[in-house]
Design goal:
The protein has 2 domains: about 30-275, 3-Layer(aba) Sandwich (Rossmann fold); about 295-575, no CATH class. The longest helix is centred in the C-terminal third of the chain and has 29 residues, at about 410-440. It starts with a helix and ends in a 7-residue tail after the last helix. It is globular and about 80 Å long. About 50% of the residues lie in helices and about 10% in strands. Strands 1-2-4-3-5-6-7-8 form an 8-stranded mixed sheet, sandwiched between helices. A two-stranded antiparallel sheet has the order 9-10. With about 575 residues, it is of the alpha/beta class. The protein has helices at about 1-25, 80-90, 115-120, 140-150, 195, 210-215, 250-265, 280-305, 325-350, 365-390, 410-440, 455-480, 490-520, 530-555, 560-575, and strands at about 30-40, 45-55, 65-70, 90-95, 130-140, 160, 180-185, 235-240, 445, 450. Strand 1 and strand 2 (about 45-55) form a beta hairpin. The chain contains 15 helices and 10 strands.
C-alpha cells in the first residue's frame, strides 16, 4: 500500500514537474506567448499551427517572422527547438502542421504540403513585418517552403533548409538565384542524402552537380563559405553538423546555424548569441512527464484491482511450463529476430499489393505497420502451435499455463473485465495528457517519439487499427508468458528479461543500419532511410509494452490486461503521430 501510494505521488509529480519545465522553457520564462491558431488554405483545407509571439510585439511594433515547418510524419512541436530559439531572439514564429498531419485537415501532400497557405497566413498578421519573413523547414517541411517561395516569390527574404533540398517531390529546382538567401543545413550522417542531393554518402553532397548548381559554382562546395550576396538575395551557405537527419532536432549546432542565418539576413531581431540555447530543457521536461505517465499506469491498476468488480481478475500465474535450457535460447532468438528481419520486406507488401488509403485505414504508414505485425503474429502463432503440439503437450502443458484460459475454459466475462480495466488504466494516463495540453500547452515526447491527444477523426481511426494490434499483442504475450517465462524470477528481473526480448532486436537493427553510415558510408540497407528512422520509435513503444504486460500478467496470471493495454497505448500513439493519406 505504501509503495503504491509513493509511486502514484512520484508519477503525478513527474508529470507536473515535466509540464512546468516544458512550459517555462517554451515561453522563455513567460516572455513569449504561445497560441494555437487555425487558418483556411486552398480548397478550404483548415490548417492548425502554433504561433510564438515575443513580448512587446504589437501591430504598432511588428517583428520579423519565421514560418517553421516540420517533416513527414511529424507535427508542429517537432520544430519546437527551432521555434523556441527564434522566438527568444524576437521573431514571431508560425509552426504549422502540414496538411494531413497533426490537427490539420486534408490529406498529406495536399496544397504543397501546406507551405504556401502558411506563408500567406503569416502575411495576414499585422504583428509581423512583411518585408522581413524567413522560412525554415526540415525534410519535407523544406520542400513545403521551397514551393511556398515559388508561389509567393516576394513573400520571404531568406530560407533555411534543414536536411532538405530543392527539386524533390514537387519542390522547384534550385538555381543560383532561387530560393533567395539560402542556408542549407545538411548533416554529415543524413540518411536521405541520395534522395535529396543525389549522393549516397552524405558528406559527399558537396561534389554533386545539383548542389553546385544551387550554389552557382562548378567547383566543390566548401562548407561554411558564403557564396553570393545577402543584399542581392543570392547568398548561399552550407553547414554540415555531425548528426543524422532526425538528429537536427537534437543539435545545438544545427539549430544555432538556423538562428545565426536569420540574424544575418532578417532585420529587427536581437543579438542574443546563437550558441545561447535553452530548448533542450523543454525536451527534458517532456521526457520527464512521459516517464510520469508510464509510471502512473501501475498504481492506478493496483487501485482498480481493489474494486470488487475487478477483484476476481487477481490470480497467481500458473507454474511455467515453457522452454528451458538450449530450447529457451532458440525460442528467444526467434522471438527477438522475427520482427526485425521481416520489418523491411513485410511492410513492402502494402506497397506491392497497391492498397490505396481508405476511410477505414487512411494512414499509409500505420497500415504498413499493421500488415507487418499481422504477418509476424501469424508466423509466431504457427511456430508456437508447432512447439506446443510437438514438444510441450507431452509435459501436460495446456492453455492455463499460457495465461489464456481459466481451468482450460475461455471466460468472456473475465476477458471483458480485462478490457475494461485496461481501458481505465490507459484513460488515466490520457487524462493527464489532456490536462498537460490545456495547462502547459505541450504534450509528452522526446525527439521523434511523441504522445499526443487524439482529435475526433484520429479517435475514429484508432478504432479501425486497434483490432489487428490487439491480435499481435495477444500472440506476443502468449509467447512471452507461455514459452519464454521462467519460474522464480522477481517482478523487476522479469521486467528486464521481457524488456530485452522486446527491444534488443530493434537495437540490433539500428546498429546494423548505422554503423556503416557512421563509418563514412551509407546505411546497410540504403533504400530504407524512412523506416530506419521509424524503427527508433519501436524502442519506447516496445519498452512500454514490456513493462505493462509483465506487471499485469503477474497480477492476473493471464495475458489479456497487458495485451489490451499495449494495443491501446500503441494504437493511440501511432495514430496521433502519423499522417493521414485519405481525403475525408
Amino acid at each position: 500500500m505504501k509503495s503504491r501510494t509513493k509511486l502514484l505521488i512520484v508519477a503525478l509529480l513527474l508529470i507536473l514537474l515535466g509540464g512546468v519545465m516544458a512550459s517555462v522553457t517554451q515561453t522563455n520564462g513567460g516572455k513569449v506567448t504561445i497560441k494555437e491558431v487555425r487558418f483556411v488554405g486552398s480548397n478550404g483545407i483548415i490548417q492548425n499551427a502554433r504561433l510564438y509571439i515575443p513580448d512587446g510585439v504589437t501591430n504598432e511594433n511588428p517583428a520579423p517572422g519565421i514560418v517553421a515547418i516540420h517533416g513527414y510524419i511529424n507535427t508542429n512541436e517537432t520544430q519546437d527547438g527551432f521555434a523556441i530559439e527564434f522566438a527568444r531572439r524576437g521573431f514571431v514564429v508560425l509552426a504549422p502542421d502540414q496538411t494531413g498531419h497533426g490537427y490539420s485537415e486534408g490529406a498529406a501532400f495536399a496544397n504543397g504540403f501546406g507551405g504556401y497557405p502558411a506563408l500567406a497566413f503569416m502575411h495576414t498578421l499585422d504583428i509581423v513585418d512583411p518585408a522581413n519573413i524567413g522560412l525554415e523547414g526540415h525534410s519535407m517541411g523544406g520542400w513545403a517552403l521551397v514551393i511556398a517561395a515559388s508561389v509567393i516569390p516576394d513573400g520571404y527574404k531568406a530560407i533555411v533548409l534543414e536536411g532538405s533540398s530543392t527539386g524533390t517531390y514537387g519542390a522547384p529546382d534550385g538555381t543560383a538565384e532561387f530560393p533567395r538567401n539560402l542556408a542549407l543545413v545538411f548533416s554529415k550522417y543524413d540518411e536521405f542524402s541520395a534522395l535529396m542531393w543525389g549522393s549516397p554518402v552524405p558528406a559527399e553532397i558537396v561534389n554533386t552537380d545539383k548542389l553546385k548548381t544551387v550554389f552557382g559554382t562548378t567547383e566543390t562546395v566548401v562548407p561554411g563559405k558564403l557564396y553570393g550576396s545577402i543584399a542581392e538575395g543570392t547568398a548561399r551557405i552550407l553547414y554540415q553538423p555531425a548528426v543524422t537527419h532526425p538528429g537536427d532536432h537534437l543539435s545545438n549546432e544545427a539549430i544555432g546555424y538556423a538562428v545565426d542565418w536569420f540574424q544575418k539576413t532578417l532585420d529587427g531581431a536581437n543579438d542574443l548569441p546563437a550558441a545561447n540555447q535553452i530548448w533542450l530543457w523543454k525536451e527534458i521536461g517532456n521526457l520527464i512527464a512521459l516517464i510520469g505517465m508510464v509510471l502512473l499506469f501501475f498504481p492506478v491498476g493496483s487501485l482498480l484491482f481493489e474494486c470488487s468488480y475487478f477483484a476476481e481478475l487477481i490470480e497467481k500465474p500458473a507454474l511455467s511450463k515453457g522452454s528451458a535450457g538450449v530450447g529457451w535460447w532458440i525460442a528467444a532468438l526467434v522471438f527477438v529476430l522475427l520482427p526485425v528481419v521481416t520489418l523491411f520486406p513485410f511492410k513492402e507488401f502494402f506497397v506491392k499489393w497497391a492498397w490505396p488509403p481508405t476511410a477505414l485505414f487512411p494512414q499509409n504508414i500505420t497500415s504498413q505497420v499493421v500488415v507487418w505485425t499481422t504477418l509476424v503474429g501469424l508466423i509466431a502463432m504457427a511456430l508456437f502451435l508447432v512447439w506446443h503440439f510437438a514438444l510441450n503437450k507431452k509435459a501436460q502443458a495446456n492453455s492455463d499455463h499460457y495465461g489464456l484460459t481459466w481451468e482450460q475454459k475461455i471466460s468472456w466475462r473475465k476477458i471483458g473485465k480485462s478490457f475494461l480495466l485496461a481501458f481505465l488504466v490507459v484513460l488515466s494516463g490520457y487524462i493527464t495528457l489532456l490536462l498537460t495540453s490545456v495547462f502547459f500547452q505541450t504534450d509528452y515526447r522526446f525527439w521523434v517519439f511523441a504522445v499526443k491527444p487524439l482529435n475526433a477523426l484520429q479517435f475514429r481511426i484508432t478504432l479501425s487499427y486497434i483490432i489487428p494490434f490487439i491480435f499481435f499483442f495477444l500472440i506476443s504475450a502468449t509467447i512471452l508468458y507461455g514459452q519464454l517465462r521462467k519460474n522464480g524470477l522477481g517482478l523487476g528481473k522479469e521486467m528486464l528479461v521481457n524488456l530485452g526480448l522486446l527491444v534488443v532486436g530493434y537495437v540490433g537493427l539500428l546498429a546494423y543500419q548505422y554503423i556503416p553510415l557512421f563509418a563514412g558510408g551509407t546505411l546497410s540497407k540504403a533504400a530504407e532511410p524512412l523506416w530506419t528512422i521509424i524503427a527508433f520509435q519501436f524502442l519506447p513503444l516496445m519498452s512500454i509494452a514490456a513493462l505493462v504486460q509483465t506487471y499485469f500478467y503477474r497480477k492476473t496470471g493471464h495475458v489479456y490486461v497487458g495485451a489490451f493495454m499495449s494495443a491501446m497505448i500503441i494504437t493511440w500513439i501511432v495514430v496521433a503521430s502519423q499522417a493521414i493519406h485519405f481525403t475525408f
